[in-house]
Design brief:
The protein is about 75% helix and about 0% strand. It is mainly α. Its main location: membrane.
Length: about 300
């Protein structure tokens, strides 16, 4: 009986494909893929379908490699946070050494293959993105400053620039503003999550803004970045990749987003936790739709322009 139980426990700890795939942070990877694809498709230069598919694949692999290296470095705090305790390393399914080896191998492969497929600019941006996320954000900023997610958010904002570089071989105002859209979106998106998982970060000794400055200060910062985000999103609509469809979408979404940020601001620590969390969760869900619909509107504009129907 003891031998049978030991065998069952060993089986429970044995990693499967799903555990290794989870190392790559597939939800984050999906955002990387989507925004990079939009950056590629809205660019003024066409890309051969084979090169386009290969490039998006290698960008996705690079994003997944970053996730694996993030989990390798953060294994200690992942074990302390309820939100991350079921990740492959805390559960013992994957070792820290395996995560590191996978992350390094995939990083090198992704950058080299993107260089061969799309050139030096796209590959260089991907390499810098991986470095920024793993070294600048994960290893340095995350445990050092409450501005960790503000500066570190740049890593998640580079994919549309990479997609644009795949098509054009360079950088432009349009790609910089797509970067700025995701960059300015990250703080209100992530801080709204941090508001209702504050104890997780406190237990793990991560200096998230909610821990170091409190919820009220975080609510004020969410509103400030939401207003900045509105300016950036409208500016993007005035470029060559914008148009009336995009502008209609951005006006509606920004009004809803600002309304949501004001709703959060009116909350205080004196309010019931259930009511506060309800508003914060609603804002968090809206933030997901906000980014997806903005990039989706850019795709619609690109499609309309292809048929001679869109643009200013």
């Amino acid at each position: 009986m003891t031998d049978i139980r030991a065998y069952e426990q060993a089986q429970e700890q044995e990693a499967g494909f799903g555990d290794y795939f989870a190392l790559l942070k597939p939800r984050v990877m999906s955002l990387v893929v989507f925004t990079a694809l939009v950056g590629l498709l809205v660019a003024p230069v066409g890309v051969h379908p084979v090169i386009a598919v290969a490039s998006i694949l290698f960008i996705a692999v690079g994003g997944g490699a970053s996730g694996a290296l993030n989990m390798w470095w953060d294994a200690d705090i992942d074990r302390l946070m309820r939100r991350t305790q079921k990740r492959p390393i805390p559960t013992g399914k994957v070792t820290e050494g395996e995560a590191f080896a996978i992350g390094i191998a995939l990083s090198v492969m992704a950058v080299v293959m993107l260089f061969l497929a799309a050139g030096a600019m796209a590959a260089g941006l991907l390499a810098f993105t991986i470095f920024f996320y793993v070294v600048i954000y994960t290893m340095w900023l995350k445990r050092l400053t409450p501005q960790n997610i503000v500066i570190g958010g740049a890593a998640g904002a580079f994919p549309p620039m990479i997609g644009w570089a795949v098509a054009t071989g360079g950088i432009s105002l349009e790609s910089v503003l797509m970067f700025a859209l995701t960059f300015a979106w990250t703080p209100p998106h992530f801080w709204s999550l941090a508001l209702f998982v504050k104890n997780d970060y406190a237990n793990a000794h991560v200096p998230m803004l909610t821990v170091t400055h409190g919820r009220d200060a975080t609510r004020r910062q969410i509103l400030a970045y939401t207003l900045a985000l509105a300016v950036v999103s409208v500016a993007l609509g005035l470029t060559s990749i914008g148009g009336p469809v995009y502008m209609a979408v951005t006006v509606v979404l920004n009004l809803l987003f600002i309304k949501g940020a004001l709703g959060i601001l009116r909350r205080s620590d004196a309010d019931s936790e259930a009511d506060s969390h309800l508003a914060e969760r609603a804002f968090f869900k809206l933030s997901l739709a906000y980014l997806f619909l903005h990039y989706g509107a850019l795709l619609v504009e690109a499609t309309l322009k292809h048929w001679g129907l869109g643009g200013w």
